[in-house]
Amino acid sequence: MAFRRLPVSTCVLEVERKFRSLAVHELTQYGGLPHFKSLRKLPNQIIRDSYYDKSSILSSAGAWIRKRDGEWQAKIRKGGNFTNSRFEELSSIDDIAAYIKRTTGIDGGKAINFGLQPTATFSTTRETWVADGEFHVVLDTMDFGHQVGEIELQKTLEGENGGAPAEQQKQEEMQIMDDRIVAFMSTYAWAFSPGEPKGKLTAYFERLRSQV
């Protein structure tokens, strides 16, 4: 008898906590106590982002639609707040279009930017380290001078019996991920500057208003 595996529906969960800046001149494995168990620096990236919205409907709903280096992405907030964020990420054009239609009523394809208007465009120099084998420590410096960092964990979650992951399943998994980030940042508190971080879009729009 042949066994046929049912297709599994998955989603990508991302949990992140922001920090204002690094508290050390250079992040190294032995830069403070306790030491990182491991620390690997990834190549620097230059990222070009354009964000899209329609009368702030999407951002008000906790969704960010962007074109990053030519590829469309959607980040849908699933809880938390600005500093402690939990997202489901969409990269499928069909999924993004369906979400935009549900949220705004606009039925537009990617050829017309899903019927949205650009709200912000900037470039980011991104430094990334992988600490203790799985925690991504990210430091972003935007081309308008602002800097902000974040600790990220990602997980691909599978649904049961071929179905999509249930909302409760997503929330429980993201809570576990967030608890682990809190413990990580507490353990290595020497690496991160205290103080309230400011997001890149907040800083971008503040700069625009100051120029008016």
Automatic annotation (TrEMBL):
GO terms for cellular component: cytoplasm. It catalyses: thiamine triphosphate + H2O = thiamine diphosphate + phosphate + H(+). It is found in: Cytoplasm. Keywords: Acetylation, Cytoplasm, Hydrolase, Magnesium, Metal-binding. The keyword Cell wall biogenesis/degradation does not apply. GO terms for molecular function: magnesium ion binding; thiamine triphosphate phosphatase activity. Its cofactor is Mg(2+). It comes from the Eukaryota. GO terms for biological process: thiamine diphosphate metabolic process; thiamine metabolic process. Pfam families: CYTH. Its EC number is 3.6.1.28. Residues 14-173 form the CYTH domain. It is an enzyme of class 3 (hydrolase). Belongs to the ThTPase family. Monomer. Hydrolase highly specific for thiamine triphosphate (ThTP). This is Thiamine-triphosphatase. It comes from Hypocrea atroviridis (strain ATCC 20476 / IMI 206040) (Trichoderma atroviride). The lineage of its organism: Eukaryota, Fungi, Dikarya, Ascomycota, Pezizomycotina.
